[in-house]
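I am going through a labmate's work and have reached the protein record below. What it holds is a sequence and that sequence's fold in token form. Please read both lines and tell me whether the tokens look consistent with the sequence. Do not assume that whoever made the record got everything right. Thanks in advance; the entry in question is below.
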Amino acid sequence: MSRRAGIVASIGCLAVVTACAPATGAVPIAERSAAPATPSPAPAPRWTAAGALFDGTPDALGNHFCSGSVIDTPGQDTVLTAAHCVATGDGTPARTGMEFVPGYADGRAPFGVWTVTAAAVAPAWLAHGDPSVDVAVLTVHRADGVPVERLTGGFRLTVDPGSVNAVEAIGYPDDSDAPLVRAGTTTRFSPTQLELDAPGLYDGTSGGPWVCDGDEVVGVTGGYEQGGLTPDVSYASYLDAATTALLPPPG
């Protein structure tokens, strides 16, 4: 995963067989059982920036209900998810206070737990649940002040990715304590939506990243039908300037 801050624009990860090859030396997430003793800026193993959102507190997490991923920003404290994971779309504000656990697997939090302290959602979602902007940008914080990206790495946010992208979609089904990964190729369902025919993205995978080339997020499960009414076909709001407008200002 890239440690470089910034946003990739108009790249378009075209569908090729090798488009989403594993990072060199990648370690499966379930094989990591403990956080590093000290923060390290070294590149993180594959998928460590993906995680689950929980109700509850750092000491009593409760159940996970959505997915998300750390994205590369100067503040190193930013998580991307779906707007419908944090706001109902009926005029009420986005909620905060939930917990983000990157790399969660088998009941373990290998990097620790971060509390969501702020949630940025487009006005059109807040007002009436507009599926074209079903994206949220969360700010997370841990008591010791360690930025999450320093431990997990961060995906690069790719806006205007084009219609055809070979991706791996990552998420946490409600009934699973390990991440699920489904590979496929996106198509353009509508001007504001990408479609992914990759069976198996069950409830709870909302907000999970669609990753191209191993480190670029080109969508999150959400959008039309809040991600899809069946696990066979999923959707994502097309990432554009409305997405980058949600990012925290640099510095």
User: Anything to note?
Assistant: The two ends are 22 Å apart (CA to CA).
